[in-house]
Amino acid sequence: MWGGKPRTRASGILLSVIMPEVSPDQFRAALGRFASGVTVITVPTVDGDVHGMTASAFCSVSLRPPLVLVCVDHLTETYLHLRERCCFAVSVLKQDQEALSEFFADPERNPDAAYRLGITYTKMSSGMPVLGEALAQLDCSVIEAHPAGDHSIFVGQVNEVAVHEGTPLLYFRGRYGVADSGKNES
User: Fold this and answer.
1) Which residues fall within 8 angstroms of residue 112, CB to CB, at 6 or more apart?
2) Which residues contact 60 (CB under 8 A, 6 or more apart)?
3) Domain segments of the chain: what residues?
4) Model's pTM, two decimal places?
5) Does 2.30.110.10 match the CATH number of domain 37-174?
6) 50 near 67, Cβ under 8 Å?
7) Secondary element (H or E) of residue 129
8) What is the pLDDT of residue 32?
9) Cα Dmax for the chain
10) CA distance linking residue 153 with residue 151, whole number of Å
11) What is the DSSP-derived secondary structure letter of residue 15?
């Protein structure tokens, strides 16, 4: 049993162990120990605007073809735009872009804050909007969407990439940080 439900192995053998239910606080604490990069997912809206959200639930899936995935909560505006547009862009944030992460993580964004932060979008050759000055930018077409709990997993085929120099913004245990450059200072 897994969380009160039967669980099978790949071979189809039913496990007879009863597993305790993991609370949301326990789950959050455990996954908070996993350091992740910080990205902003952007989607062009039907009326020509750009909508974005901060996402740390982003990773590569395949090299051939180049695939990535992002997990998006069903209650977010981004989810609606992704379902409608079937495309998204990824901007991997640099260490000095923490304010952008905070802005796009807030569902009640203030347009004046966007102006004060100087948020600018550049367009990839396809016209997909990405954040300017990001560490990396990817243009993706949704090829699959899988409902999973209160989120959907959107798998995107990467159509174009742009990479730039810099140090990534990291997120660990509810705080921002930066990666060690790996250079030994003597």
Assistant:
1) none
2) 67, 68
3) 37-174
4) 0.82
5) yes
6) no
7) strand 129-131
8) 80
9) 58
10) 7
11) P
CA distance 136 to 93: 8
Calpha distance 7→147 (Å, rounded): 19
Torsion angle, CA of 138/141/147/149, rounded to 10 degrees?
A: 10
pLDDT tens per residue across span 48-61: 899 999 998 999 99
Return the residue matching tokens 């189809």: 12
Query: Using DSSP, how many helices (H) and how many strands (E) does the chain show?
Result: 4, 12
Residue length of the chain: 186
Task: Evaluate whether 128 touches 87 at the Cβ level (below 8 Å).
Answer: yes
Sign for the CA dihedral angle at 103, 171, 175, 34 comes to: positive
CB neighbour list of residue 22: distance below 8 Å, 6 or more residues apart:
3
- The residue with tokens 């740390």 is 56
Alpha-helical segments (H) within 11-67: 24-31
pLDDT confidence of residue 4: 47
Q: Is 63 exposed, middle or buried (0-12, 13-18, 19+ CB in 10 A)?
A: exposed
Tokens 């949704």 label which residue? 142
Q: Is the pLDDT of residue 174 over 60?
A: yes
The pLDDT tens digits for 118-133 are: 999 999 999 999 998 9
Q: Looking at this protein, which amino acid is placed at residue 143?
A: I
